[in-house]
């Protein structure tokens, strides 16, 4: 069968790559054409024959964050949507598989449905957190929703939206990662790092996230570095594949106790004592890896104002982090907007490292999160379910 998959961000590229592995494994005739990134492209090149599929558009060319960023890049987004529609029509897939990225993918869902194509949505739009009006579109344009969080089950059941739940793919992504089995010595040697205790900094994958998160993180690094008990620590910045080294260097400057490393996010988190993480999928990954973390998030005042207005309608949403939502309690701290200061981050980092009872309590919460997500094999199970749906 012919699958047209659209992922618009780094997390979507990760999930898309694992889904593609499952599709190639389950469907011996699979032909896949996609919008995504390097991980999806790697899977395609390892499995595909000359079938006219492959990478059409890399997500780094169109990632946006927040209302103001969307407005600034509106022309490019519209051009990408037109290009995507034309390419789908030309390739004539059996199904269009949309992965998260709702601002773009909801438009494609409407188009593909109108064109008479099957539409699957993998990793549902977070309508339980905002823009609940999208549920009407999901009912109208999507043949089957594939959800990945247990707390979504009662929500979509109550909205009468057909869905399939086969666990969360991050369990496989983390547990099967080479980073989880690599020794600390090998990790340090391969990346040219000294054997010093480290604190991970994951500033996000979008330009706006990095420009807001990293300067505060550098202030945290400066303050901790001045303390005798942290003088030997190194701060490992995980470079996002969609960002250039120059963007990071402009903010990191000449700090020799801050190291920038690309393509090693899991390893950086795994071998660090604690992590500062911009809210997103990375915070759930850190919980599954088992590294204590503090989640931070900030945006423009206008976007924050709109976001808070929206969230007041959804009074059941208590947290911004997926891990805390899954556990239904505050397993790790969330420092949002005005609370995201160097003082508060420093205090939390020190508590996670120095207060062993606090650290143990957080790791116990991580065990609960992992248990709630179910077992392994989610990506392959979703691929099988998609094939079953197409064969009905």
| Backbone CA Rg | 21 Å
Look at the structure and give the CATH class of the largest domain: Alpha Beta
Low-confidence stretches: 64-71
The CATH topology of the largest domain comes to Rossmann fold
State the major sheet.
Answer: 7 strands, parallel
Describe this entry's structure for a reader:
It is a single chain. The protein is an alpha/beta fold and 392 residues long. The chain folds into 2 domains: 2-168 and 377-390, 3-Layer(aba) Sandwich (Rossmann fold); 176-372, Glycogen Phosphorylase B (Rossmann fold, 3-Layer(aba) Sandwich), CATH 3.40.50. It has 18 helices and 13 strands. The protein has helices spanning 10-26, 38-47, 66-72, 74-91, 102-114, 134-141, 152-158, 170-175, 184-190, 207-225, 245-252, 265-270, 281-289, 301-313, 322-327, 342-354, 356-372, 378-390, and strands spanning 2-7, 31-36, 54-58, 95-99, 118-122, 144-147, 163-165, 198-202, 234-239, 258-262, 274-278, 293-297, 334-336. The strands form 2 sheets. Strands 3-2-1-4-5-6-7 form a 7-stranded parallel β-sheet, sandwiched between helices. The chain has a 6-stranded parallel β-sheet with strand order 10-9-8-11-12-13, sandwiched between helices. Helix 5 runs parallel beside helix 6.
Summarize the structure.
With 392 residues, this protein is α/β, with parallel strands linked by helices.
Summarize the SSE layout with pairings:
Elements: E1 2-7, H1 10-26, E2 31-36, H2 38-47, E3 54-58, H3 66-72, H4 74-91, E4 95-99, H5 102-114, E5 118-122, H6 134-141, E6 144-147, H7 152-158, E7 163-165, H8 170-175, H9 184-190, E8 198-202, H10 207-225, E9 234-239, H11 245-252, E10 258-262, H12 265-270, E11 274-278, H13 281-289, E12 293-297, H14 301-313, H15 322-327, E13 334-336, H16 342-354, H17 356-372, H18 378-390
Parallel strand pairs: 1-2, 1-4, 2-3, 4-5, 5-6, 6-7, 8-9, 8-11, 9-10, 11-12, 12-13
């Amino acid at each position: 069968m012919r699958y047209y998959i659209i992922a618009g961000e780094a997390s979507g590229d990760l999930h898309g790559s694992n889904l593609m592995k499952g599709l190639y494994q389950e469907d011996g005739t699979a032909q896949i054409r996609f919008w995504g990134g390097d991980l999806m492209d790697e899977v395609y090149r390892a499995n595909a024959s000359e079938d006219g599929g492959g990478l059409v558009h890399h997500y780094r060319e169109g990632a946006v964050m927040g209302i103001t960023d969307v407005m600034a890049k509106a022309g490019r987004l519209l051009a990408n949507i037109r290009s995507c529609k034309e390419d789908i029509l030309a390739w004539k897939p059996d199904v269009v598989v949309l992965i998260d990225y709702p601002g773009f993918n909801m438009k494609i869902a409407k188009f593909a449905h109108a064109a008479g194509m099957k539409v699957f949505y993998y990793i549902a739009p977070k309508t339980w957190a905002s823009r609940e009006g999208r549920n009407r579109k999901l009912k109208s344009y999507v043949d089957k929703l594939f959800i990945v969080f247990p707390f979504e089950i009662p929500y979509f059941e109550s909205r009468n939206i057909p869905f399939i739940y086969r666990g969360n793919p991050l369990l496989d992504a983390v547990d099967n990662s080479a980073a989880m089995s690599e020794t600390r010595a090998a990790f340090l040697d391969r990346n040219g790092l000294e054997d010093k205790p480290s604190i991970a900094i994951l500033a996000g994958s979008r330009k706006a996230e990095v420009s807001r998160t990293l300067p505060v993180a550098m202030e945290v690094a400066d303050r901790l570095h001045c303390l005798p008990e942290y003088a030997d620590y190194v701060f490992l910045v995980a470079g996002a594949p969609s960002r250039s080294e120059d963007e990071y260097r402009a903010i990191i400057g000449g700090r020799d106790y801050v190291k920038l490393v690309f393509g090693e996010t899991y390893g950086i988190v795994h071998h660090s004592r604690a992590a500062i993480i911009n809210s997103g999928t990375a915070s759930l990954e850190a919980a599954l890896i088992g590294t204590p973390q503090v989640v931070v998030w900030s945006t423009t005042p206008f976007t924050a104002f709109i976001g808070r207005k929206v969230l007041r309608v959804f009074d059941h949403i208590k947290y911004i982090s997926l891990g805390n939502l899954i556990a239904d309690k505050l397993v790790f701290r969330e420092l949002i907007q005005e609370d995201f200061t160097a003082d508060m981050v420093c205090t939390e980092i020190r508590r996670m490292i120095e207060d062993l009872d606090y650290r143990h309590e957080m790791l116990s919460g991580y065990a609960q999160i992992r248990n709630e997500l179910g077992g392994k094999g989610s990506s392959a199970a979703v691929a099988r379910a998609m094939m079953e749906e197409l064969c009905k």
